[in-house]
Design a protein that fits this description.
mainly beta; Alpha-Beta Plaits; two-stranded antiparallel ribbon; about 10% helix; about 20% strand; elongated
Length: about 60
């Protein structure tokens, strides 16, 4: 059986950097950006290991 592939899409302008999605991710795919901020000055969530995403939607 093949691996289920998922992906996350983050609206960087609306992300507040609360890191709730980072904590909820069972595969540690998501992290907050270290060097980039959005238009409001918040670090936003990025997929640091997108190949490990299983598409569980816990981050949503």
């Amino acid at each position: 059986m093949g691996k289920i592939k998922g992906s996350i899409v983050v609206n960087t302008d609306r992300c507040k950097g609360c890191s709730l999605c980072v904590v909820a991710c069972p595969k540690d795919v998501i992290a907050l950006s270290d060097k980039h901020v959005n238009v409001n000055g918040y670090p936003y969530a990025v997929a640091v290991r997108p190949d490990d995403c299983i598409g569980c939607a816990s981050c949503g």
